[in-house]
């Protein structure tokens, strides 16, 4: 995306770097984030690192225990089902509300920009950027609702959504992009019921294939 964003504080820069590294598998699931070594790798002091790790924990990327410290979270069957269930509750409703918002005159510019960005990264073929752009598309739908609670709920899980998208990047991204095109069109028409139906089928279609790709423990 080309939007200009304010400079991030050092802890947030560290958070962003660690988040990307976890998603890309540089720090594998179950890996202990050794504070001293990571501080050396990132060339930062441990103080801002200690501020960044709790942000990752809130987003579900790590779990912290008194004796082991921060450990990269491990996906299992329950967590995958929970994320799909939550997405259906959150995003299906948001798609309908976004279509309704169009009827009130809310612009689709951000949604169209997110769709265009998705198309460009699909053509480039970088799995991380594809996952990032796909997540941004779904965030844009939620943003169209204007509902601050929906947006806060989406922010709380969008990192894990992107992580799962990356882990399942072997699935056909062109099919997913086609779904996005149809969903964006339904929203732009103000067709609430069709937007909800398309959002549901888009999410649910990938549930079983995701398990086939990941082979998560029970």
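^ structure tokens above, recovered residues below v
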């Amino acid at each position: 995306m080309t939007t200009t964003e304010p400079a991030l504080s050092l802890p947030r820069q560290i958070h962003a770097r660690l988040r990307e590294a976890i998603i890309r598998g540089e720090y594998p699931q179950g890996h202990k984030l050794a504070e001293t070594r990571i501080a050396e790798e990132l060339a930062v002091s441990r103080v801002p690192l200690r501020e960044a790790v709790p942000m990752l924990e809130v987003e579900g990327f790590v779990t912290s225990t008194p004796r082991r410290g921060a450990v990269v979270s491990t996906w299992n069957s329950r967590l995958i089902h929970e994320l799909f269930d939550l997405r259906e509750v959150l995003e299906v409703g948001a798609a309908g509300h976004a279509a309704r918002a169009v009827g009130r005159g809310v612009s689709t510019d951000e949604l169209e920009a997110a769709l265009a960005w998705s198309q460009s990264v699909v053509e480039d073929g970088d799995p991380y950027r594809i996952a990032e752009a796909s997540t941004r598309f779904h965030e844009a739908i939620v943003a169209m609702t204007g509902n601050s609670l929906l947006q806060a709920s989406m922010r709380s899980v969008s990192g894990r959504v992107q992580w799962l998208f990356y882990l399942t990047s072997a699935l056909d991204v062109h099919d997913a992009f086609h779904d996005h095109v149809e969903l964006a069109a339904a929203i732009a028409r103000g067709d609430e019921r069709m937007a909800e139906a398309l959002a549901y089928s888009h999410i649910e279609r990938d549930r079983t294939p995701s398990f086939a790709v990941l082979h998560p423990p029970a």
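The beta strands are 62-65, 69-72.
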